[in-house]
Amino acid sequence: MTTPRRFDGRRALVTGGSRGIGEGIARRLAAEGAHVIVAGRSLGPAQEVAGEIGGSAVQMDISDAEATMAAVAALGPLDVLVNNAGFDDFAYFTDTAPQQWRALLGTNLEGMFACTHAALPAMQQAGYGRILNIGSEAGRIGSKGNAVYATTKAGIIGFSKSIARENARYGITCNTLAVGPIDTPLTDAARAVPVHGEKMVQAMKDGTLLRRLGTTEEVGAAAAFLCAEEASFVTAECLGVSGGMGISA
Ligand SMILES: NC(=O)c1ccc[n+]([C@@H]2O[C@H](COP(=O)([O-])OP(=O)(O)OC[C@H]3O[C@@H](n4cnc5c(N)ncnc54)[C@H](OP(=O)(O)O)[C@@H]3O)[C@@H](O)[C@H]2O)c1
Predict the structure, then answer these.
(1) 149 a catalytic residue
(2) CA distance linking residue 157 with residue 238, whole number of Å
(3) Quick one: pLDDT at residue 105?
(4) Mean model confidence pLDDT for the chain
(5) What are the boundaries of the signal sequence (predicted)?
(6) Of 104, 153, 195, 234, whose CB count within 10 A is highest?
(7) What is the number of domains present in the chain?
(8) Residue with the nearest Cα to atom 13 of ligand 1?
(9) What span, in angstroms and rounded, lies between the C-alpha atoms of 7 and 16?
């Protein structure tokens, strides 16, 4: 199968692009011709991926909104923004504390706000932009042991639809991927949770119609579609990449 070149001449920022799903998306956009800026909390791993795909790297901890806004603005105009960086903190809700809630909200939601806020003015001026936010099926159907995480992922859908509404007149689309269980270090973290870990990952697989974990390449392919110029009539959508997990959403 020949990979198309839908991103020749395009500049894309992928947060959390140094591993897992973000890396899969960064690799796919680069393979299709984009200059990808790989953002990582540590510069080293981001530089490693960027070096392999012919992109560039930037250090960014998106839990610091002000610093993130400055860092994104300093990159100059972007054609594509993929808000992927995020984390989960597996625990039953009654075992969590406000500090954990704030950490999840600060990264998964405020980090996305900061990147989007900084990237939008140049996109509006250019009259073109593709923003893709990485959500989760947890945000559509809920998830045991992930109440606050699921809340952040539901919030991403509302944010994406609102940004899509506000920016349609500028030729900017904004969509969400409701990702299902994908084989990444985040899934490894779930597996490592004492007592319930393995069961949790098995339940994730069983929750899909396809009875398996997805791959980062499969997410990269869906992301590339929504970030391509040709997806110009697709906005405010939430696309499940989850082996059918969201069937009842
Ligand atoms: N894996 C799944 O099954 C699954 C399912 C649904 C949704 N998702 C979503 O997909 C996205 C990527 O997940 P993944 O599975 O690829 O996870 P991962 O392997 O843990 O990678 C997460 C990435 O986000 C970065 N990150 C986390 N906190 C950050 C922060 N404060 N500032 C900057 N970067 C930060 C990490 O950077 P460091 O390397 O510096 O930690 C890493 O590059 C997340 O939004 C996740 O919620 C994943």
Answers:
(1) yes
(2) 7
(3) 98
(4) 96
(5) none
(6) 153
(7) 1
(8) 21
(9) 20
Task: Say what angle helices 147-167 and 112-126 make with each other, to 10 degrees.
Answer: 10
Tell me which H or E stretch contains 108: none
The Å distance, Cα 15 to ligand 1 centre, comes to: 9
| Centroid of ligand 1 to alpha carbon of 145 (angstroms) | 17
Q: Which of 64, 133, 186 to mutate to test the pocket of ligand 1 (most atoms within 8 A of CB)?
A: 186
Q: Is residue 4 part of a domain?
A: no
Q: What percent of the chain has pLDDT over 70?
A: 100
Q: For residue 201, is it within any domain?
A: yes
- State the residue range of the domain holding 178: 11-241
Does 170 score more than 80 pLDDT?
A: yes
Which is more confidently placed, 39 or 248? 39
Domain CATH code at residue 205: 3.40.50.720
Q: Is 3 a domain residue?
A: no
Strand partners, 133: 83, 176
149 burial type by CB count under 10 A (0-12 exposed, 13-18 middle, 19+ buried): buried
Distance 182 CA to ligand 1 centre (A): 11
Tokens of 96: 């969590």
Q: List residues near ligand 1 (CB under 6 A).
A: 15-16, 18-22, 40-42, 60-63, 84-88, 107, 134, 136, 179, 181-182, 184-187
On the question of pLDDT at 52 being above 80, the answer is yes
Strands (E) in the chain, as ranges, are 11-15, 35-40, 56-59, 80-83, 129-136, 172-179, 238-241
